[in-house]
Description:
By secondary structure, the chain is mainly beta.
Amino acid sequence: xxxxxxxxxxxxxxxxxxxxxxxxxxxxxxxxxxxxxxxxxxxxxxxxxxxxxxxxxxxxxxxxxxxxxxxxxxxxxxxxxxxxxxxxxxxxxxxxxxxxxxxxxxxxxxxxxxxxxxxxxxxxxxxxxxxxxxxxxxxxxxxxxxxxxxxxxxxxxxxxxxxxxxxxxxxxxxxxxxxxxxxxxxxxxxxxxxxxxxxxxxxxxxxxxxxxxxxxxxxxxxxxxxxxxxxxxxxxxxxxxxxxxxxxxxxxxxxxxxxxxxxxxxxxxxxxxxxxxxx
Length: 279
């Protein structure tokens, strides 16, 4: 049986929020690194956003600003970068990704490969930080995790000022998509009916395969011979297994393709296209 590790890992990582201590205790607050060693063994609950002093987190970028797309068995490493500032300088910082309605009620998460972020000094008050995350879709992700994820982050100054944010950035984590098309018969006489079939599929992280994506609107598009510009002929929906089928009248030589605009859980994709020779 495969083990879905992410929920258990992040449950432990919730202990990091203990760093967001009340103001009265701030002077004695430990650095992020001091607690990182025991992250996975703890089960503390998260408070809401908290801060003390002038510490700030900004410029958060996940995966270079792009959605993170996983195929059925994709193993991928990506980065989270951010800037942390404090008038006394930054002692330590870290971030993690989570999925759910709130951080307290998360149902999945991703913890970085490092105990804390690697931070490079910009000047006496500012550092640029980076963490890497490695996720194996087949072992770490459930299909229900597809969609919007958030970044939880914490930074602490050398003077024990700190800031902890449950949601400093959002990113899409998506199930990779595939789309096919076939137009027939070919060649075809002008004015005769062409049947255009295809299938929209997306990664199923739980089975490790692609599966049909049902009930989705897909555009049938056509480009005349010699042109790379497609125009939409009609819009149809996939059936219960992701299949597509429609008919059009043959007029001139050209290429038919299906085009899917994408959803929050699944990226946009265009079929390769099928050329029809009209006699």
